[in-house]
Amino acid sequence: MKLTKNFIQPIAGAMLCIFLFSCGGKNAQTGGMAREYAVMTLEPDSMEWYSNYPAAIKGKRDIEIRPNVSGFITELRVDEGSVVRKGQVLFVIDTVPYKAALKVAETNVEVARANAETARLTAENKRELQRRDIISEYDLQMAENSYASAKAQLAQAEAQLVNARNNDSYTRVTSPLDGVVGEIPFRVGSLVSPSSATPLTTVSDNAEMYVYFSMTERQILELAAQYGADNFLSKLPAVSLKLSDGSIYPLKGEIETISGIIDTQTGSSNMRATFANPHKLLRSGGAGVIMIPMKSDSALLVPQKATYEIQDKKFVYVVNDDSTVKSTEITISSIDNGKDYMVLSGLKAGDRIVVEGVNTLKDGMTIQVAGAQAQGQAQAQAQNK
């Protein structure tokens, strides 16, 4: 029994050593292998996308309607949102005092006209008497002065009549254009005057709509670079308008103007696009998003998943010939199609970059490039996310 025990112990010890050596060697081998990463080679590619800009919708003309005379509103002939024509009566202000003033002015004109006629006859009579030396030159001059004064009083009365007629007509507040009525803060019985801070309402010309949006200086320069700096607005394609419900307005618009000044506080410049509005779908005061179509036939694109960010700067890992990776800063366009970044600098055609797992890499690490099939799948996944 003792011999058997002595015989078994060396055998067991040898087997244990072999097992430990085998495990240690396997672990060592595994620890020394480089991890596989999917890699893509950059090539110029075509790219189409929309650049989106928040926008405010305004009527081509938004006219504030204000009274020219003071008084109480006696009639309200339209409602908010009504479509009106040029010259249509919107409000009626109490006409009684203005019709009375008009009657007085008409009477004053009649009186002044009669006085002027009397003065004319008197002057003619005095002229004939003076010619016969019956009266003095002084008496004639007095008569002619009275006639001139009567004519001036008639002219003054006629001017007052015109003013009274205008005031009477101003009691009927009309629309200066075809358009849509906005908010009406006043109702029948409200006292209004030309000095009121709040307008009676606003009428908007909605046949065409102005859509205002802003671009940064960099975005404007990118557009100028793509379409040419010389009069590039005329070369821009038609733009689309996304409405607040996410739908796309069916008609295209044109960018017509750009402010010549960059706002020093925002670093942006205001632009204006015009859209036809035959069905009155667009309303002044609305909001939307201007969508400018963009295209490049030689864009250098990298999947967004292949990048990482440090202090607002974008980086990728470039794979060197010796399979080590180098952290490389890139400059990207402000354009974002949701999947890729368009590289402006930092990379060139033919460079290889890691497209997945970049958060596990460090500068200078050695990697193993994944097989073609796995690499293609990973690259497709990176571009689709």
Task: Give a concise summary.
This protein is 32% helix and 34% strand. The chain has 385 residues and is α+β, with helices and mostly antiparallel strands.
Account of the 3D structure:
This protein is α+β, with helices and mostly antiparallel strands and 385 residues long. It has four domains: 36-48 and 298-384, conserved putative lor/sdh protein from methanococcus maripaludis s2 fold (Beta Barrel); 52-59 and 203-297, Elongation Factor Tu (Ef-tu), domain 3 (Beta Barrel), CATH 2.40.30; 69-93 and 173-198, RNA polymerase II/Efflux pump adaptor protein, barrel-sandwich hybrid domain (OB fold (Dihydrolipoamide Acetyltransferase, E2P)), CATH 2.40.50; 96-170, Helix Hairpins (Orthogonal Bundle). The chain is 32% helix and 34% strand. The protein has five helices and 21 strands. It has helices spanning 2-32, 96-131, 137-170, 217-227, 372-384, and strands at residues 36-37, 39-41, 45-65, 71-76, 83-84, 89-93, 172-174, 179-181, 191-192, 201-216, 240-243, 253-258, 268-276, 287-299, 301-303, 308-310, 313-319, 325-336, 340-345, 352-354, 368-369. A hairpin with a 3-residue loop joins strand 18 (325-336) and strand 19 (340-345). Helix 2 (96-131) packs antiparallel against helix 3. The longest helix is centred in the first third of the chain and has 36 residues, at 96-131. The model is unreliable at 1-8, 10-14 and 16-31 (pLDDT under 50).
